[in-house]
Design goal:
This protein has one domain (about 1-105). The protein is globular and about 45 Å long. It is built from five helices and no strands. The protein starts with a helix and ends in a 9-residue tail after the last helix. The protein has helices at about 1-5, 10-15, 25-50, 55-80, 85-105. With about 110 residues, the protein is mostly helical. The longest helix is centred in the N-terminal third of the chain and has 26 residues, at about 25-50.
Amino acid sequence: MAAGLVDPIGFYTFSGLELSDDAGLLSEVRGAGGIIMVSGLVVGLGAFLRAWSRTSVVLAAVIFLSLGVARLLGIALDGYPGAEVIQGMAIELVFGSLALFAFFKCGMGTFGSR
């Protein structure tokens, strides 16, 4: 999502969406892009550093599932957003579900134990 942070207009154009060059709108989009980019870095750390694995799995589940569920809500409230957005939503829901599965399957779901 670094592209959403660095070039939000180009990133969203790739998804079939058109952003205006309004500074407030671009600031909001860059802010969301920054959160997602940093979250991705934390999730990536969990793949290489065992000490970060629990945090990364929880963060992946929270981020991906919240994005996917929010998009589902958007479909219900706003209508069909386009195939590219639906594809992204499906990927978010799959990754979020996999992270949630890993959280419980790997014994991470028992708080206080590690």
